[in-house]
Amino acid sequence: MALDSSGLGVWKVDPQTRAVALTASLKQMLGVPIDRDVDYAAFFALLHPDDRENARSGLAAALLPGSDGNCEIEFRILLPSGDTKWLLAQGRAFFKGEGENRIPTLFIGTMHDITDSKAAAEHQQMLIHEVNHRVKNSLQLVSSLMRLQARRSKNQEARQQLDDATARISTIAHIHQRLYRDQDTKQLNFGAFLSELCADMQGTSSHCSLTVAAPDFYLSTDRAIPLALIVNELVTNAFKYAYPNGGGPVAVIVDLHDAAEISITVKDEGCGIPEGFTIEGAGNMGMMLIGSLTHQLSGHVQAGRNAAGGACFTVTVPRGDKRPEAIA
Asked: What element of type H or E holds 108?
């Protein structure tokens, strides 16, 4: 009675014979008549075809000799009515023997209907995607207004400042556009995004060639935005000042030192930076922004000349999150 009132169904499997026992509440959850027996094969036949392999491998892993015996699997089932239901199965296998001779003797657990919570999560994800879409559109509108204002300005310095601010806003809009396209709204593939961002920036410069070397890796959104703005500033500065008498190459290189730290280098083969140059002492808006954002990310910036004599800026920051890993 307690189990029935809790909304849980209980299942039991004999790992040796694969005999299955289900409570009445679980049969009702599965849409199976109370008086009908359900064996191992019949149970998997109830699952959505796309979820069967994952469920099989998850259950099988819990029965391996070296396993702790625990499993937790989400999957869909197909009801006789044609509807789909999401279930969460949680179980534990019990063993006898030691080491490689461990043999599973009992596999028992519960099953819970999570259809409503899944629907709520999907609705929330949809709302977040919609918010990112609207933010992106709003930022693009602001960018358009600022470009219009810049074109109307007769002051060259003011026009340049408006153009720079427009580029910064466009960078943020680009991130929200990618978050709208991707399934995960909490983090994004920053390596892939950086390639897209630099491709857009290349379109603003006809005299410099911009290359990117970045592996695929993930960053949380709140770290991706300031880091993207830093790259935007460094590349923009290279376009403006590296080659006063022509053009040349500009490179963006990403190094993943370990699971906790990342470095991004922006370098050119131009005239280099003045002796005694520091980020703090530069005095212009772009360098002030780079310093402030790097400090916000608990990182540091190194500025100097590379082997070719050009400027080289390296920003090193922690990833700030244990989940993102480089993609093999």
From this structure: strand 103-113
Give the sign of the dihedral formed by CA 188, CA 190, CA 192, CA 198.
positive
Q: Identify the helix (H) or strand (E) that includes residue 76.
A: strand 70-78
Burial grade of 221 (CB within 10 A; 0-12, 13-18, 19 or more): middle
3 state DSSP class of 276: coil
250, 228, 254, 252: which is closest to 174 by C-alpha?
228
Residue 258: half-sphere exposure toward Cβ, Cα within 13 Å: 1
Residue pair 108/92 in contact by the 8 Å Cβ criterion = yes
DSSP class of 318: E
What whole-number distance in Å separates Cα of residue 299 and Cα of residue 303?
14
Which three-class secondary structure state does DSSP give residue 320? coil
In tens, the pLDDT along 188-201 reads 899 998 998 898 88
pLDDT band at 324; cut points 50, 70, 90 = very low
**What value does the CA radius of gyration of the chain take, rounded to a whole number of Å?**
28
128 token code pair: 């977040």
- The average pLDDT across 262-270 equals 94
195-254 residue pLDDT tens: 988 988 888 788 899 999 999 999 988 898 899 999 988 998 899 889 998 889 999 999
First to last CA, the chain: 50
Q: What share of the chain is helix, strand, coil (3-state, %, to 5)?
A: 45, 25, 30
Whole-angstrom distance, CA of residue 212 vs CA of residue 6:
55
Contact 139, 172 (CB under 8 A): yes
Measured CA to CA in angstroms, residue 41 lies from 29, 76, 290 at distances of 18, 16, 60
